[in-house]
Amino acid sequence: MIVILLGPPGAGKGTQATRLMDKHGFVQLSTGDMLRDAIAKGTELGKKAKSIMDAGKLVEDSIILDMIRERLVDGNHKKGVILDGFPRTLTQAEELDAMLTEMELGIDHVIEMQVDEQMLADRIVKRAAESEQVRDDDTVEVLQQRLKVYHDSTAPIIPYYRVKGALSVVDGMQTIESVASAIDDIIGGWEV
Description:
By secondary structure, this protein is an alpha/beta fold. The protein has one domain (2-186): 3-Layer(aba) Sandwich (Rossmann fold). 56% of the residues lie in helices and 12% in strands. It has 9 helices and 5 strands. It has helices at 13-24, 31-41, 44-54, 61-73, 90-102, 117-130, 140-154, 157-163, 176-186, and strands at 2-6, 27-30, 81-84, 109-114, 167-171. α1 (13-24) crosses α9 (176-186). The termini are close together.
């Protein structure tokens, strides 16, 4: 089973991905982690990525797709996969679908976690006021910039998956447990 969790920053995707890994044995394929791992191991893809990153450029989609392909081929995904950080654009979604079709795989569920963005901003303000250590990215201004990037780049893939019949929507403003239950209902109570 291949699952993509979508939603704006702060929607709880990371929390739900961790829960799916712990409860169901899913593997999380984080593009950032895969890049760092490939670079640390000195793989061919890692060397390519490092030279691109060292030049201050973004790693091409083809390299990311090759890394995802490697992870899917290694067989450690039999219990399920959560794609984290990819796709972020419509082009990436289309290229991912083409690669998965070639591998005789497909995306089983795309789960959009919808949230009230003003409430997200309020949470950050409250967390910053209550915390002794405020993270640099724990500001409303940073959230607003991240939301703009999300709406400009990632949100356009939602209609793409809706048309394909893979999209389900969860109210991300519910409790963590309620969101988890809704996700379990979508994936069919998948058990390992």
